Amino acid sequence: MVALSTNGRREEKAVANIYDDKRIFPDFRSGPLEEYRERASFCYKRMNVVLEGEDHIRLKHKVWQWMEQHPDYQREPGSDLERTREMANKRQHLLWEQQFYGVNEYLGTPHLLLAFGQAIFSYDFSTSVKFGLSTGMFPSTLVSNGSGRLGKYVAKIADNRILGAYALTEISHGTNALGMRTRATYDVKREEFIIHTPDFEAAKCWVGNLGKTCTHAIVYAQLYVPDDKHQGLQAFLVPIRDERTLLPFPGVTVGDMGEKIGLNGIDNGFVMFNQYRIPKANLLSKTGDIDAQGNYTSKIKDERKRLGASLGALSVGRVNITAITYVALSKAVTIATRYAASRRQFGPTNSPAEWPVIEYQSQQYRLIPHLATTIALRVATLWIGKENVDLTMKGFTGEDTSQAGMEIHAISSALKPVATWAARDGIQECREACGGHGYLKSSGLGELRNDNDANCTYEGENNTLIQQASNWLISLRRNNADFVAVSPLETVSFLKDMDTILQSKGQEHTPAQVLDPLNLLNALNWLTIWHWIRR
Amino acid sequence: MVALSTNGRREEKAVANIYDDKRIFPDFRSGPLEEYRERASFCYKRMNVVLEGEDHIRLKHKVWQWMEQHPDYQREPGSDLERTREMANKRQHLLWEQQFYGVNEYLGTPHLLLAFGQAIFSYDFSTSVKFGLSTGMFPSTLVSNGSGRLGKYVAKIADNRILGAYALTEISHGTNALGMRTRATYDVKREEFIIHTPDFEAAKCWVGNLGKTCTHAIVYAQLYVPDDKHQGLQAFLVPIRDERTLLPFPGVTVGDMGEKIGLNGIDNGFVMFNQYRIPKANLLSKTGDIDAQGNYTSKIKDERKRLGASLGALSVGRVNITAITYVALSKAVTIATRYAASRRQFGPTNSPAEWPVIEYQSQQYRLIPHLATTIALRVATLWIGKENVDLTMKGFTGEDTSQAGMEIHAISSALKPVATWAARDGIQECREACGGHGYLKSSGLGELRNDNDANCTYEGENNTLIQQASNWLISLRRNNADFVAVSPLETVSFLKDMDTILQSKGQEHTPAQVLDPLNLLNALNWLTIWHWIRR
Ligand SMILES: Cc1cc2nc3c(=O)[nH]c(=O)nc-3n(C[C@H](O)[C@H](O)[C@H](O)COP(=O)(O)OP(=O)(O)OC[C@H]3O[C@@H](n4cnc5c(N)ncnc54)[C@H](O)[C@@H]3O)c2cc1C
Ligand SMILES: Cc1cc2nc3c(=O)[nH]c(=O)nc-3n(C[C@H](O)[C@H](O)[C@H](O)COP(=O)(O)OP(=O)(O)OC[C@H]3O[C@@H](n4cnc5c(N)ncnc54)[C@H](O)[C@@H]3O)c2cc1C
Question: What ipTM was assigned to the predicted interfaces of this complex?
Answer without folding.
Answer: 0.96
